TrEMBL record:
<dbReference type="Pfam" id="PF00694">
    <property type="entry name" value="Aconitase_C"/>
</dbReference>
<dbReference type="InterPro" id="IPR050926">
    <property type="entry name" value="Aconitase/IPM_isomerase"/>
</dbReference>
<keyword id="KW-0411">Iron-sulfur</keyword>
<dbReference type="InterPro" id="IPR001030">
    <property type="entry name" value="Acoase/IPM_deHydtase_lsu_aba"/>
</dbReference>
<feature type="domain" description="Aconitase A/isopropylmalate dehydratase small subunit swivel">
    <location>
        <begin position="557"/>
        <end position="685"/>
    </location>
</feature>
<dbReference type="GO" id="GO:0046872">
    <property type="term" value="F:metal ion binding"/>
</dbReference>
<dbReference type="InterPro" id="IPR006248">
    <property type="entry name" value="Aconitase_mito-like"/>
</dbReference>
<dbReference type="GO" id="GO:0051539">
    <property type="term" value="F:4 iron, 4 sulfur cluster binding"/>
</dbReference>
<keyword id="KW-0408">Iron</keyword>
<protein>
    <recommendedName>
        <fullName>Aconitate hydratase A</fullName>
        <ecNumber>4.2.1.3</ecNumber>
    </recommendedName>
</protein>
<dbReference type="InterPro" id="IPR036008">
    <property type="entry name" value="Aconitase_4Fe-4S_dom"/>
</dbReference>
<dbReference type="GO" id="GO:0003994">
    <property type="term" value="F:aconitate hydratase activity"/>
</dbReference>
<dbReference type="GO" id="GO:0005829">
    <property type="term" value="C:cytosol"/>
</dbReference>
<keyword id="KW-0816">Tricarboxylic acid cycle</keyword>
<feature type="domain" description="Aconitase/3-isopropylmalate dehydratase large subunit alpha/beta/alpha">
    <location>
        <begin position="34"/>
        <end position="477"/>
    </location>
</feature>
<dbReference type="InterPro" id="IPR015928">
    <property type="entry name" value="Aconitase/3IPM_dehydase_swvl"/>
</dbReference>
<dbReference type="InterPro" id="IPR015931">
    <property type="entry name" value="Acnase/IPM_dHydase_lsu_aba_1/3"/>
</dbReference>
Length: 754
């Protein structure tokens, strides 16, 4: 039986009425996304025809999911809110703090030894406040959510950008910062700008080497890394119905890489099969009763251009396998074009590692398709050229795959089976030799491939592909290997060719597991004490940020003018820094150390206007804070792209940064900055970015009149005494301005709960 089945049945019992009311309000047929959004309006929100991309709307999500790295800060904030229990079903999943190095058992034990303090903290907070807890080794948050909690037509938020994976089961599932999650945990509405809608019509059917992963790799190439910003991507058509539920999850998962608010699919037979295979017959039965409301209206899909803001059509019959990269997940290359492109760009053609798994591609079906390629290599007498690493998505997937012999196939190729955890996907990989910073190529089925992401080496060229293509390329050892056309030389000197991969949508003998790794919270957690040692290096109780004094910000100095792509990885790196995710002051020592300074094109080297010398970004900022000088961060387009980690907003705020002004923001990061009381602005004229000089002083001359839709005037005073006046745009509404005035959204919650 499903978790929280009563909540699901209650939603479904009201769904028909809410959908019909929304049709009357809007005066038109509805997309699936609109049905879910309008059926999850907060009781405090007045239903009306919302304007896409403009109106801020209050919603009531059905549940919340947090992974261990972000849960620490989210729960530290929740502990300040004065509530006895979470108001909405919530889970914590321990998947980020396990480093891939030697193999599953040894790596898991090493994580338990090194991060025991954090795991104990998360478990005790979960038990106390009514939160479900998934132990280290239980699996990657998004695969575990798909197997246990996701349901068609639901809405959930999660403190990880790849929460969107649950769209594979027909949800509107959205990645948020911890402060957003805290709002919902305490029973408040959750605010979101009503999304624009992008429709992707899928015709035909996948075959051969093409996979669901290639659908999103193709879409990423079309829309780019910011093309989905402030939009929900809704997939439909015969091609959508022909794919498995976990395949749909892969597509939705990587929607985060195009900046999409989320992605989703309508309820169909594949979702029903998956629900029943994962022990949720009750959800499938309930969903079948309201199936018509768990899809867009027929008129929408018949004439999508009338109902979506943008429509893309992809013919699955002709879709080729892709490898995307390096250094960005939207640089798309069909396999047959790789030789020319790689040679032109001087990408290393020798492949050193093939990595399969992560939250994006770690289902039973994914492993079975990759294993079919690996099995062929063994049978055809091929020797693997690259090293292999496998991260199963959950203990249930791992146990079942081991039972059915899939993992043994990989082990026969000397693959390392890592823990059921994120591992290399989020930089938790102790890769031998990475410290040498050698130029090299790896291929993986993960979602992100930013510089230094997987192994900390800025010269690792990482390419994203499907599990089966990763397996073939790793075995061949060549980036430009095309398994559709190319042959390989086996141990007998013969030319052999791979046959098309095969896979199993679901395990023929059903899923099985001995210990899934779940712990129920205590029925009454009031007696549980949460202890955080004062001298802990891993955990630190939070102190409130100071409220705004209501005055203009004057005499502010430039901390850094970031050049080009500046993701949350650049602002707050993962990898070895993950150990400080619960200690704000310690992790603040990595603030923007990966950002490129536009004035010297170096990382972690900025000029201090106090001393005139260059130094590390965190050290320079701490010096400004010590003498009370406000500071400004300047950024390029899509600033804050990538992970939902709110540390990238909390760290600058903690160190004393007052303003972040950029050409454009990634959605989650802009919200995180607002929540933490940082003034988040965009250039009214993006060319004004070029006017910012290294020794500038910033005077915000009319901030005292801060109001919605009112531009903010900034006087730039240059070192030679000359001045420029520029304008900053913002997207704050009245409620968000109150966050700024209070010093943070959490401060406002605390005031209301007194």
């Amino acid at each position: 039986m499903a978790f929280n089945i009563d909540i699901i049945k209650a939603l479904y019992s009201q769904l028909a009425g809410k959908v019909e009311a929304a049709r009357k309000i809007t005066g038109k047929p509805l997309t699936l996304s609109e049905k879910i959004l309008y059926s999850h309006l907060s009781s405090e929100e007045t239903p009306r025809a919302f304007s896409r991309g403009k109106d801020y709307v209050d919603f009531a999500p059905d549940r919340i999911a947090c992974q261990d790295a972000t849960a620490q800060m989210a729960l530290l904030q929740f502990m300040q809110a004065g509530k006895a229990q979470v108001a909405v079903p919530t889970t914590v999943h321990c998947d980020h703090l396990i480093q891939a190095k030697l193999g599953a058992d040894k790596d898991l034990q090493a994580a338990l030894n090194s991060s025991n303090e954090v795991f104990n903290f998360l478990e005790s907070v979960s038990r106390k406040y009514g939160i479900g807890f998934w132990k280290p080794g239980a699996g990657i948050i998004h695969q575990v959510v798909l197997e246990n909690y996701a349901f068609p037509g639901g809405m959930m938020i999660g403190t990880d950008s790849h929460t969107v994976n649950a769209g594979g089961l027909g949800m509107v599932a959205i990645g948020v910062g911890g402060a957003d999650a805290v709002d919902v945990m305490v029973g408040m509405p959750w605010e979101l700008k009503f999304p624009k809608l992008i429709g992707v019509k899928l015709t035909g059917k996948l075959s051969g080497w093409s996979s669901p992963k290639d659908v999103i790799l193709k879409v990423a190439g079309i829309l780019t890394a910011k093309g989905g910003t402030d939009a929900i991507v809704e997939y439909f058509g015969e091609g959508a119905a022909s794919m498995s539920c976990t395949g749909k999850g892969t597509i939705c998962n990587m929607g985060a890489e195009i900046g999409a608010t989320t992605s989703t699919f309508g309820y169909d037979d594949s979702m029903e099969r998956y629900l029943r295979a994962t022990g949720r017959d009750d959800v499938a039965d309930a969903a079948n009763e309201v199936r018509e409301h768990l899809n867009g209206d027929p008129e929408v899909y018949a004439n999508p251009e009338q109902y979506f803001d943008q429509v893309i059509e992809i013919d699955l019959n002709t879709l080729l396998p892709h490898l995307n990269g390096p250094f960005t997940p939207d640089l798309a290359t069909p396999v047959g074009e790789m030789t020319e492109k790689a040679t032109k760009n001087d990408w290393p053609l020798d492949v050193e590692w093939g990595l399969i798994g992560s939250c994006t591609n770690s289902s039973y079906e994914d492993l079975s398709r990759a294993a079919s390629v690996a099995k062929q290599a063994i049978e055809k007498g091929l020797k693997t050229k690259a090293e292999f690493g496998i991260n199963p998505g959950s203990e249930q997937v791992r146990f079942t795959a081991e039972r059915d012999g899939l993992l043994q196939v990989f082990e026969d190729l000397d693959a390392t089976i890592f823990t059921n955890a994120c591992g290399p996907c989020i930089g938790q990989w102790a890769r031998a030799g990475a410290e040498d910073k050698k130029k090299n190529t790896i291929v993986h089925s993960f979602n992100r491939n930013f510089a230094k992401r997987a192994d900390g080496n800025p010269n690792t060229h990482a390419f994203v592909g499907s599990p089966e293509l990763v397996a073939a390329v790793a075995i061949a050892g060549r980036l430009d290997f095309n398994p559709i056309t190319d042959t390989l030389t086996n141990d007998k000197g013969e030319q052999v060719k791979f046959e098309e991969p095969t896979g199993l949508e679901l395990p023929p003998l059903g899923f099985d597991v001995e210990d899934a790794g779940y712990l129920e919270p205590d029925a009454d957690g009031s007696g549980i004490a949460i202890n955080v040692k004062e001298d802990s290096e891993r955990l630190q109780l939070l102190e409130s940020f100071s409220p705004w004094d209501g005055k203009n910000i004057s005499g502010a100095k430039l901390l850094i003018k970031a050049y080009g792509k500046c993701t949350t990885d650049h602002i707050s790196m993962a990898g070895p820094w993950l150990r400080f995710r619960g200690h704000l002051d310690n992790i603040a020592n990595n603030t923007l150390i990966g950002g490129v300074n536009a004035f010297n094109m170096e990382t972690n080297s900025v000029k201090s206007q106090i001393t005139g010398e260059y130094g590390a970004v965190p050290d320079t900022q701490r010096a400004y804070k010590a003498v009370g000088i406000p500071t400004v961060i300047i950024g390029d387009h899509n600033y804050g792209e990538g992970s939902s980690r709110e540390h990238a907003a909390m760290q600058p705020r903690h160190l004393g940064v007052s303003v972040v002004m950029v050409k454009s923001f990634a959605r989650i990061h802009e919200t995180n900055l607002k929540k933490q009381g940082v003034l988040a602005l965009t250039f009214a004229n993006s060319d004004d970015y070029d006017k910012i000089q290294e020794d500038d002083t910033f005077n915000f001359t009319d901030l005292a009149d801060f109001a919605p839709q009112k531009q903010i005037t900034i006087e730039l005073v240059h070192s030679d005494g000359s001045k420029d006046t520029i304008l900053g745009n913002h997207t704050y509404n009245e409620a968000q301005i109150e966050w700024f005035k209070a010093g943070s959204a959490l401060n406002l919650i605390k005031l209301k709960n007194k």
